[in-house]
Every structure is written in structure tokens, then in C-alpha cells.
Amino acid sequence: MSDSIPPIEKLNDESPQVFIEAVNTLFETAPPLADRLLAARPFKSYLDLIDKAEAICLGSDLSDQDKLDIINAHPRIGENKTNLSAMSLKEQGYNTRQGTESEQDRQVNATLAELNKKYEATYGFKFVVFVAGRPRTEIIPLIEERIASNNKEQEMKTGMTDMMLIARDRLKKATGETRS
Known about the structure:
The protein is mainly alpha-helical. Helices cover 61% and strands 0% of the residues.
């Protein structure tokens, strides 16, 4: 996955494959979302594209399976580094220059792995959070709190909303494009 994406004007005219690859840079690989965005072309800007994605994800037109496919496209927080995209590695605060994990990383990741299992057993989908550069240690109490809330509908909405925050942050890093 590249940190850069083509200008939106060019993307609007690209082949479906190139369009979907660029969209996956922002949202991970979520075919139900990418296919709907492809059908909604053209977009005025990437922010317009993300706004459309948010409307799709938070709207009522998606099946339950489509929602699961979209939210489960994101990697688990604390996932083994080999299973993460380049963007996710940076977002989750891994030192990509270091060849091995520190003991603290292993302990935090083991705790997150257990909490991910508990979250997924509770809700039936992955925990998604906009990390925003926070250390993974700060995510532990957050996931515990969200498990304790025991509100599946709210958790799906929160996860989808955080996916859009992640996409906006990725867009900003890739292009400098932000809402003014």
C-alpha cells in the first residue's frame, strides 16, 4: 500500500481496479464499501468520497453482512506486525525500523489480543478505534470500557465512525487535504 494517492480528478477516470486500490489505501480492503464508492463516481474531492463512505456506512442500505465485511476489513489493534498494512503499522505506533518487538510491546500486544477476543465474542466484529498516535497502552482501558458498554448497535456505529476518522487522517498524511 502506498502512502500517496492520485488526484481525485484522475481517480474518477481510473479503471475499477486502480480506483478500488486507492480506496483501499483509505479504508483497508472492504469490497462492499469500495464497490459502492466505485458506483458513486465521480467525486469532487477525497473529502467528498469519505463523506459518501460515511453516509454508506452509517446509513440503512447495507446488509448486516456488508457491515461486518467493512468493519472486519480493519486489522486488529496490536495485531502481529506481519499482518498489518504500512499505514496501520505507523498508526499503531510500531517502530518499523526495529527488527523485533520489545518485551513491553509483546506484553501490550498479548493483552490487546485477549481483549480483542473478548470484544469479538461480545459483539461479533472487530474492535476499530482511531489511534491517532496514542500509545497502544492507552487503548487497553478504552477497549475494556467499550466491552463493558455491551451495546452492539452503538459499537458498530462507533467503529464505522472511527474508520472515517482513520480515512481522513490517512488522506491528510497522503495529500495534505483537510477540511478547512
